[in-house]
Amino acid sequence: MLEEEHPSPENSIAVTCGPPIMIRYVLESLEKMGFGEEQVYTTLERRMKCGIGHCGRCNVGPRYVCVDGPVFSLKELRQLPDEM
Ligand code: FES
């Protein structure tokens, strides 16, 4: 559906949230349409538990989702280990 609508990446950003499998496919589609890594943002808040930096359960590599995010650009996601 997103590719049918084919929004222009010119002067645009894309923000996505939802189930991880949906986000994965939306990110792929946005890249196909020409959106750059710094034009795409998504959230990893589903990984959060305490939300205040105490439990240590939301880490992805060296980053804590609740402290460093929960919103990350696609460029930042690519720099994290593939644990999603
Ligand atoms: S959710 Fe507990 S440390 Fe991030």
Fold and architecture overview:
This protein is of the alpha+beta class and 84 residues long. The protein has one domain. Helices cover 31% and strands 17% of the residues. It is built from 4 helices and 5 strands. It has helices at residues 2-5, 20-32, 65-68, 74-78; strands spanning 14-16, 40-43, 59-60, 63-64, 71-73. The strands form 2 sheets. A 3-stranded mixed beta sheet has the order 1-2-5. It has a two-stranded antiparallel ribbon with strand order 3-4. Helix 2 links the parallel strand 1 (14-16) and strand 2 (40-43). The mean pLDDT is 93.
Q: Briefly, what is this?
A:
By secondary structure, the chain is of the alpha+beta class.
Q: How helix-rich are the residues, as a percent range?
A: 25-40%
How many helical elements?
Answer: 4
The strand line-up of the biggest sheet is 1-2-5
Structural class: alpha+beta
Average pLDDT metric: 93
Computed over alpha carbons, the radius of gyration is 14 Å
Strand content: 15-25%
Ligand types: FE2/S2 (inorganic) cluster
Number of strands: 5
First-last Cα distance: 24 Å
Low-confidence stretches: none
- State the major sheet: 3 strands, mixed
What coarse outline follows from CA principal-axis ratios?
Answer: elongated
